[in-house]
Amino acid sequence: MFERFTKDARAVVQGAVGHAEEARAGTVEPEHLLLALLDREGSRASFALAAFGVGEHRDAVRRALRDARRRAGLSQSETEALAGLGIDVAEIVAKVEEAHGVGAMSADDRKGGRRWSGHRSFGRGAKEVLEKALRVAVARRDRHIGDEHLLLALTLRPGVPAEVLADHGVTHASLTRVLGDGAGKACA
Q1: Quick check: 100 pLDDT over 50?
Q2: Domain Clp R spans what residues (predicted)?
Q3: What's the whole-model pTM score?
Q4: Alpha-carbon distance 111 to 143, whole Å?
Q5: Residue-number span of the structural domain to which 65 is assigned
Q6: For residues 184 and 127, what is the distance between their CA atoms, to the nearest angstrom?
Q7: 32 contacts 67 by C-beta, under 8 angstroms
């Protein structure tokens, strides 16, 4: 499938690996794909994100992703659902971090404080995004998978990246309007 990726899409995948390494994560996750998309300039996805003003709010997006990592990857809606059951995630995070240090609940791989090096595999969520990107491209009758397909796929998959994007007005529906060219065809 990787041979069908455009240069921009390949750069996003490689950038996601870099973000995973920087975070010392054992696997590449959808959040890393979103961070890599935020790094891009001059691509279809970067232009779409700029249309929503996300470029001006990159730091807020990064902060929201970092906060979710500190909550063990729970989205804000999941945190609110747990609050409805009487579980205060912020209190749990504070107690765990008090005992074990900031970021103790994150999925980062911090074994012995050493940086993990080597090949980063893709986690289930990131694989789902890549598969959805292929489906999006096929539904649009595009021959290649571009970074815009990766962005569309992130909006289709429930989780932190989709929630963070939606907080900035980037939903699948709004993104298909900006991208046009058949992006609105069913691809979930």
Answers
A1: yes
A2: 2-185
A3: 0.80
A4: 42
A5: 2-73+106-179
A6: 22
A7: no
Report d(CA 9, CA 100) in Å as an integer: 38
pLDDT of the residue at 1: 65
Rounded CA-CA distance 98/141 in Å is 52
**Torsion of Cα atoms, 76 then 82 then 86 then 90, to 10°:** -40
CATH number of residue 161's parent domain: 1.10.1780.10
Q: Looking only at Cα atoms, what is the longest distance across the chain? A: 53
- Number of separate domains in the chain: 1
Tokens for 50? 């700029």
Asked if residue 160 belongs to a domain, the reply is: yes
CB 54 within 8 A of CB 153: no
Q: Summarize the confidence of residues 123-141 as an average pLDDT.
A: 95
| Contact call for residues 28 and 126 (beta carbons, < 8 A) | yes
Q: What is the dihedral of CA 14, 65, 163, 128, to 10 degrees?
A: 30
Q: Taking phi first (over 0 means left), then psi (-120 to 50 degrees means alpha), and beta for anything else, what does residue 48 get?
A: alpha
